[in-house]
Each structure stands twice: as structure tokens, then as C-alpha cells.
Amino acid sequence: MGISEAMLAVAIGVFATGLLDIFSVFMWTFVGTPKTEWRLVGRWFLSMKNGRFIHDHISKSPQIPGELAFGWIMHYVIGAAWSLIYFYWVYEVMGGQPTLLSASVFGLTTLVVPYCIQQPAMGHGFFAQKHPRPVVMPILSFLSHLTFGQSLFLFYVLADAVAGF
Question: Please, which pLDDT band fits residue 1 given cuts at 50, 70 and 90?
């Protein structure tokens, strides 16, 4: 994967993350699901610079200036990074082409990080079992990550049609 393909993969990741956010707004508007609190994600990441990686409950940790903006930035940086990993894996490791199935499965495998690392470190337990909405949150995460994976494929198809990715 050359630099131009890597840049295209990053762009696809940003667009897929944006489509995920549109899906989340749709779910919040029409289904009433809770919105992701990016300020808490930002707080979690910013706390790391002070050596604090684990919280009893992140909402009870002191606020940090800029946490909301940093949470949003990290959301898109992570989406771009996952996209790079996916396209590298498909092209370089597997020697194939992206498919809807591989992108969907990849999107679901990205759940390992929030379910088993981020949620426990933020004080919500594995699979968000200690979250105030312990049933809804894992389902939303599942749907969101599936949407992200499928969005990777959608934007790959569009990029391939326009630029020959």
C-alpha cells in the first residue's frame, strides 16, 4: 500500500466515521438512544497524560479543559486508523479486495477495544455492564461498529469508482 492509497484509506475512514455519526443522530432522533458523550472520551484520553488510565466512573473524574473537542478529534483519528488497518489487512495481508462481508466483520472486530479496554477503563465494566444503560450500550456499540465497517466498504466502492482504489 503506497502513500496515495494510505491517504485514500484515511479519507475513507474519516467519511465512514462521519456516516457513523449521522447514523447515531438518526438513532437518537427517531429511536431515542443515548448520544455518545465525547467529552467523557476526551476526558479519558486527556487523563492519560497525567498517568491516569483507569477511572471508577469517568463522569465523576474532574473535567479537563478541551475534553469535548479532544474526544471528537480522537473519534475521527481512531476511525482513520481503523480504516488504515482494514485496507492494509485486505490488500497486503490477505492479498484481496474489500468486500461487504470482510468490512462488516472488521467493523465488528473493532468492538474488542471499547468492550474490553475502553469501557472497563472508564469505569463502565466489560461490555459496559456497569453503565447506567447496560443493555442498550452494547447493542448500540454493535450497531455503530457494524455501520462503520459497512461504511468503509461503501466509501471504498465510491473511491474505486472515482479514483480506482
Answer: confident
Cell of 45: 484520553
**Cα–Cα distance for residue pair 155/57, rounded to 1 Å:** 36
Residues 6+ apart with CB under 8 A from 49: none
DSSP states of 74-123 as a string? HHHHHHHHHHHHHHHIIIIIS-S---HHHHHHHHHHTTHHIIIIIHHHTT
Q: Are 148 and 16 in contact (CB under 8 A)?
A: yes
Per-residue pLDDT reduced to its tens digit, 110-161: 999 988 998 899 888 888 788 777 777 788 888 899 999 999 999 999 998 9
φ, ψ dihedrals at 66, nearest 5°: 85, 10
146, 107 Cβ separation under 8 angstroms: yes
Looking at residue 13, the DSSP 8-state letter turns out to be H
| DSSP string of 15-73, one letter each residue | HHHHHHHHHHHHHHHHT-PPPP-HHHHHHHHHHGGGT----S-GGGSPP-TTHHHHHHH
Q: For the whole model, what pTM was predicted?
A: 0.89
